[in-house]
Amino acid sequence: PLGDAFINLIKMMIGPIIFCTIVIGIAGIGDMKAAGRIGIKALIYFEIVTTIALLIGIVAVHVFQPGAGMAMNAGPVDTSALEAVKEKASAQMTGSTTEFLMNIIPTTFLSAFTEGQILQVLLVALFFAWGLGMMGSQGRSITEGIESVSHVIFNIISLIVKLAPFGVFGAMAYAVSKFGVGSLASLGGLLV
Question: What residues in the chain have per-residue pLDDT under 50?
């Protein structure tokens, strides 16, 4: 639970970080045409970098085979939670471009954050920033408020990062208790 708790704490902060960073960056520009160009570039950049990260992950799995030799018994593992993710991923892979683009639009303003959909958070942040930019000088106080919120968020992240040793310890303790000390050698080889 310590490792899972640490991961969940990090994931909890991703949406607010993206929102605050994008809003501050775009609303601070002031020129909505320039902000629009930046928004399109940000979406394209996000997609390209995500694709590169996936390719690196796929190559790393095939080359280094992490977990090989861990003698894990996957029989008692409950995979029911994975089925929903698998179905959703499969639907996105077989769906059309239109369906993909429609999935970027959140159901509500807050659902982008509550469902952890990063592209939806990015879209909400873009619209929010454009709305602030259209307000002119009246929107400046809101932008400054969001800047203050971003400082709070980064302070929270600083606190979470201080918990990293506990998260790593918990994950390692679980791995050793479940799969034996030999599992650390396999994972250590991957890190090297």
Answer: none
